[in-house]
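Predict structure. Chain length: 259.
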Amino acid sequence: MLDALRSRLFCQGFRTGKFPPAAPSLPDGFRGRPILSGGACPATCARCMETCPTGAIVMTEGKRPSLDTGKCLFCGKCAQICPEKAVSFSATEYRLGGFTREELIAVPEESYLPAIQKDEAIRKIAGRSLKIRQISAGGCAACELDFNVLNTLAWDMGRFGIQAVASPRHADAVLITGPVTHNMQLALQKCYDAMPHPCWVIACGSCAVSGGLYADAPTTARLPEGMHVDLFVPGCPPHPATLLEALLRFMGRTPEAQA
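Prediction complete.
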C-alpha cells in the first residue's frame, strides 16, 4: 500500500488535464464545428450532398449549404470534395452540444456561441451534482468508451459532481448512445420509468441524436414514447471535451466559471 502511495505521489503526480478553464488539447486532424462559406455554390454542383453518407447537408435558398451536425459523422468527405471550399471544419471549436435540434444546424456566416442553460429547475437540481445512467441502445462502443474516459484521471468529471451510476433509481439523467434498436427500446423505457422524476435525457453521438448511418435501417426504432431529449451532443464519437463541456453547460455551469 505504501509503495502504491509513493508511486502515485512522487512518480505519477498530477494527471488531470487543465480543461476547464484552459482549452483542451485536441488531436491533429480534429474536426470540430463546420464552417460554411457565405458564397453561393454553382447551380449544378451537389457534390457535398451526394457524398454525405447521412444526408446531413442540404442547400438553403441561394444555393448555400447548411449542415446538420446531429447527422454529421465528421468524416470530412464533403470538405475534401467541394471545389469551392464552401465546407470546412474548425480545428478548435469543440463545443457542439445543444439543448434543441435547431441548435445543431450550422449555416453560412454564422456567429456561433453555445447556448447556456436557462431552465431554472434544471439549474437548481443539477447545478452542483449530476448522476448519469448510461444506456448503450445498439451502439458500436465508440461513444460509450469516450464517455467512460471522463471517469479517468485525465478528465475526472467527478470533480464537477458528475458521476456515472449503476442503477436508474440513483440517476438524474439517462445518457443514450447508439441508434436505439427495436431490441433495446423496451429496456430503455424501463430504465426511464425507474428513474426518479424530474429526470432528463441526453442523446450522445450522431446515432442517438438522429440515427446516424442507421437511421433508415429496419432494426432502428425511435425513442420510447414520452421521452424528450434535453441535451444533444453530436459527434462520431463526441470528443471527451465536447461531451464534458456540454454536460457542464447543461448543469448551468460554464468552463470559464470552473477556474
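Summary: Strands lie at 34-36, 57-60, 64-68, 87-89, 105-106, 130-136, 162-164, 173-177, 200-204, 229-233.
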